[in-house]
Amino acid sequence: TAVGVTLKLGGRPTPTPPPQPPAQVGEETARKKVEDLFRFALGRTRLNPAEPQLHLDTFEAVRKEAEACGHIEVARLAAEQVAKFRDTIDHEVNVILDSLRNRAEEQAAEGNLTGAQMILLGYEGPFRRESETRRAELWKTLEAAVSERQRHEQEAALATAREQGRDLIREGRFDEAERLIADVRRGGRQGAELARTNLAGELADALADARKQVEARERRAAAELEALVAGVADRVLAGDIHAAEAAAAAAPPGPARDDLLLELRRVAQTGSTILNSFADDIGHEVELWLLEGPKTYRIEEVRDADIVAARAQREGTVTLSLRLSHLTPGEQVRRLV
Q1: What proportions of the chain, in percent to the nearest 5, are helix, strand and coil?
Q2: CA–CA distance, 165 with 70 (Å, rounded to integer)
Q3: pTM for the model
Q4: For residue 285, what are the β-bridge partners?
Q5: pLDDT, tens digit (0-9, with 9 covering 90-100), for 128-147
Q6: Which residues of 100-135 are buried (b: 16+ CB within 10 A; e: fewer)?
Q7: Buried b (16+ CB within 10 A) or exposed e, 218-256
Q8: CA pair distance 179, 207, nearest whole angstrom
Q9: What does the radius of gyration of the chain's CA atoms come to, in whole angstroms?
Q10: Cα(116)–Cα(90) distance, rounded to whole angstroms?
Q11: How far apart are the first and last CA of the chain?
Q12: Residue pLDDT, tens place only, 9-21
């Protein structure tokens, strides 16, 4: 039997078989074909190593052809090459996707979501087809993350606006609160339109209630002040400046009370000047214009807010205490100048 040239395939020699019947000849021809295809594929990987997808497709075709003709050894070797180039492609795709994801995230962080979308979905470089599905998944993940971040930022911005508005209202800074509400309504504060509308309405209601409370307090304070002034005026008219000052001092602290006390001090100073004018008249008879008419009195002494005076009558001398309220305005003015 003639022995043909051997083919080293996978490290093991395969003897060339002797002539066979036609069916066997066809089988051997097919086996020889896949061996030649495998050698061709190996040679191309050395000549063009930068085309892993081409080599994967080629070895996958060789594997199928070898399995079809029953060449188990070539099928095994081709499968090993397919696995090797699939790993190579997966690694290259992962490197590309990492780069694309980083660039897209940078664009998204700068607010350029359209740019991020173009980086991922508009990619036209190597392994475009192989990475298409995963690039689409990356885009959906990034878009969802950006949407979630924006939602949190909007909620945080509205929460801050709510807190600021409540503080302004509580502190009585109503004009500033109104400006903040207007800012929320026109979108100057981040947030979905419905959320902004609801917050603006909430703050506007709180502002209206606060203003009503302030107005009610002011009305009560005005009524209390009016009653206080009336009481103080009664004491002033009665000549009891000290009682008037005590009544004013008992009022709630505030500008109105301070103004009233200042005015009372001026009145007290005026009263003291008038009372002091009677000191020079002690021991003398003077004509005093009283509200009931002019009368002549002998001034005995000035005691606190009282003018002790004596008046001779048919029944004898009568001593009495006069107060500034008994004097006519003209008498008081005359003693001031």
Answers
A1: 70, 10, 20
A2: 82
A3: 0.47
A4: 298
A5: 888 899 999 999 999 999 88
A6: bbeebbebbeeeebeebbebbeebeebbeebbeebb
A7: eeeeeeebeebbebbeebbeebbbebbbebbeebeeeeb
A8: 12
A9: 55
A10: 23
A11: 161
A12: 444 444 445 444 4
Query: What are the tens digits of pLDDT across the range 77-121?
Result: 999 999 998 898 889 899 999 999 999 999 998 889 899 999 999
Answer whether 169's CB lies under 8 Å from 143's CB: no
User: Is pLDDT above 60 for 244?
Assistant: yes
Q: How far is residue 124's CA from residue 207's CA, in Å, rounded to a whole number?
A: 57
- Secondary structure of 80-130 in the HEC alphabet? HHHHHHHHHHHHHHHHHHHHHHHHHHHHHHCCCHHHHHHHHHCCCCCCCCC
182 within 8 A of 224, measured Cβ to Cβ: no
Q: In the β-sheet with 293-303, what is the strand arrangement from edge to edge?
A: 285-290, 293-303, 306-313, 316-322
Tell me what pLDDT residue 237 has.
57
- Say if residues 206 and 212 touch (Cβ distance below 8 Å): no
* DSSP summary character for residue 233: H
For the record, the structure tokens of 328 come out as 């006519």
Which tokens sit at 236? Answer: 């002033």
For residue 35, which of 60, 4, 12, 65 has the smallest C-alpha distance?
65
Token readout for 238 is 């009665």
> Residue 153 — pLDDT band, cuts 50, 70, 90?
confident
Residues 210-238 have a mean pLDDT of: 78
The b-or-e profile of 48-84 (16+ CB within 10 A means b, else e) is: eeeebbebbebbbebbebbbebebebbbebbbebbee
Q: Which two tokens stand for residue 104?
A: 């897209």
